[in-house]
Automatic annotation (TrEMBL):
<dbReference type="Pfam" id="PF12906">
    <property type="entry name" value="RINGv"/>
</dbReference>
<dbReference type="InterPro" id="IPR002893">
    <property type="entry name" value="Znf_MYND"/>
</dbReference>
<keyword id="KW-0479">Metal-binding</keyword>
<protein>
    <recommendedName>
        <fullName>MYND-type domain-containing protein</fullName>
    </recommendedName>
</protein>
<keyword id="KW-0862">Zinc</keyword>
<feature type="domain" description="MYND-type">
    <location>
        <begin position="6"/>
        <end position="45"/>
    </location>
</feature>
<keyword id="KW-0863">Zinc-finger</keyword>
<dbReference type="InterPro" id="IPR013083">
    <property type="entry name" value="Znf_RING/FYVE/PHD"/>
</dbReference>
<dbReference type="GO" id="GO:0008270">
    <property type="term" value="F:zinc ion binding"/>
</dbReference>
<dbReference type="InterPro" id="IPR011016">
    <property type="entry name" value="Znf_RING-CH"/>
</dbReference>
Length: 216
């Protein structure tokens, strides 16, 4: 769950809070929902639904904003460079610029965030295809692919806040998809601690493991 506050009054929400039947925007109660509808949600509801409903729509919006800020922050470092994945200066689809990754990798440190995200999806999808019918969540092959994805995120942790924010968004999205798709309960319980630590490091703060477990 990404959106944990009421769309109308911003109060924290219960897990089973009521939501818009079309776009799944969540509210405290019917009073907040009706108020939000009058204040503009009526005009946005269909657009949010077409964008994948409230969670996905909000994630995509925040992602685009974070990419734009990070590209601007990395502009000086990436002058005259190309993405090591697609070999282009501008992304063919999103038209986004480059960000600077790990400086120890030479030209392989320059990439589009969209290319890095797509590469991570492909790595995990390849493992899923090769392990069709097996327990993908606990297999060594899937674990290696997943570790590659974690490694990419950890590299971005070392960067400034704007690039960190993008890494966090990608980590949160992929983790949510993974848990919701096929991870068994015991595997999730075991690995959530690691992901909690990564999440808080991305956010620039350290939180004791005991506190993390309570929140999960």
């Amino acid at each position: 769950m990404i959106l944990t506050n009421c769309a109308a009054c911003a109060a924290p929400l219960a897990h089973d809070a009521p939501r818009c039947v079309r776009c799944w925007t969540r509210y405290c109660d019917s009073t907040c929902q009706h108020d939000h509808w009058r204040r503009g949600h009526k005009q946005m509801c269909k657009k949010i639904h077409r964008g994948g409903n409230a969670e996905q729509f909000n994630a995509d919006k925040k992602y685009k904003e974070a990419v734009a800020v990070a590209v601007e922050a990395c502009a000086e470092d990436t002058k005259g460079q190309t993405c090591y994945i697609c070999t282009q200066a501008l992304h063919w689809k999103t038209k986004e610029g480059l960000v600077r990754g790990c400086s120890c990798r030479g030209t392989a440190g320059f990439a589009h965030v969209s290319c890095l995200a797509e590469q991570a999806k492909i790595l995990v999808a390849e493992a899923d295809d090769e392990l069709w019918g097996a327990n993908v969540a606990t297999s060594p092959l899937h674990d290696r692919k997943w570790t590659q994805y974690i490694g990419a995120a950890r590299t971005l942790i070392k960067k400034h806040g704007d690039v960190r924010a993008i890494a966090q968004r990608q980590v949160d999205d992929r983790t949510a998809h993974f848990w919701g798709s096929y991870a068994p309960a015991d595997w999730v319980a075991m690995n959530r601690v690691e992901w909690a630590e990564l999440h808080h490091r991305l956010a620039g703060r350290e939180v004791p493991v005991a506190d993390q477990l309570e929140r999960l």
